[in-house]
Amino acid sequence: MSNALFEVSRTMDTIIHPPLRQINKARKLVNVVPGEGIGELSVDWIELEAMSDAMIAYSFSTGAEDTVDFSLQNSKIPLIWKDFTLDRRLYEAMRRKNTNVDASAALEAAYTVSSAEEMMILRGITRNGTTFEKNGLYEGAGQDYSTPKAIGTYGGIQDAVTDVYEMMDDSDVPTDSLRWNLSMSPNIYNKVNKSRSANDVKEMKDLLELLGTPNNPGNVFKSNTLPSVSTTGSALLTPTPDTGSQYFDYYLSAEVQTELGQDGKHPRTGPISGRIFESGVLRIRKNAVIGKMTALSTAASV
Description:
By secondary structure, this protein is α/β, with parallel strands linked by helices. Helices cover 28% and strands 30% of the residues.
């Protein structure tokens, strides 16, 4: 029986992974580094500190040498999981292949796991929804753009992004050498998506070019995880994984997977217990490349 359960578990994995890849926004924002399984309780990593300026002269001299300083970090790797129950007769039908594999329960559980992962990567780890014991990208951002900004008229969101670029420039972030992802709360995204100039130019097109180049634009995402209240929303500006993987990543010790087990009291007729689980942790090496916009308004002016 255990071998049969294992095979059904692997079949469920092949079913749930494609839709999860489609809906999971957080995985599109970070470089994913594979780990070594749920047996990893923590992971060590190095956070480099800034160095002094280099020297220019016609002969070598003293004064340009830094002692390499770094901060050795150790992050505990949390588990994310959701349990469910599979009706025994449905399981037997799946096993006999008289019906297509129905992984609806597993998929619904996987969606909750994916949602929890997005919360952990974007906001952080929290038990009460307000206090974060480990910061995600938004809570751990090194640039906090809290100036009220109206994005209800054309150009508002582009002004906000440019202002964050200027903050990053002051922190020696090579903003013009990176492509950028801009994640927005739904109310802000929806407003920007329908914004047009007086000449009927869609703002979204210009925004994408601002996040990259005309030939290689950046990306925009809508995320229910980012905070918003009524007409006020937020946004998160981060380098794309292909240009900014050195600044932060997601250490995935165990990919989302399915586990099935049987009732010990009624091993032949009892329900099948299921669990969807994964384990991973966000590692931020340089928070100066992460900018959050906390006071965006859907109004035409503030």
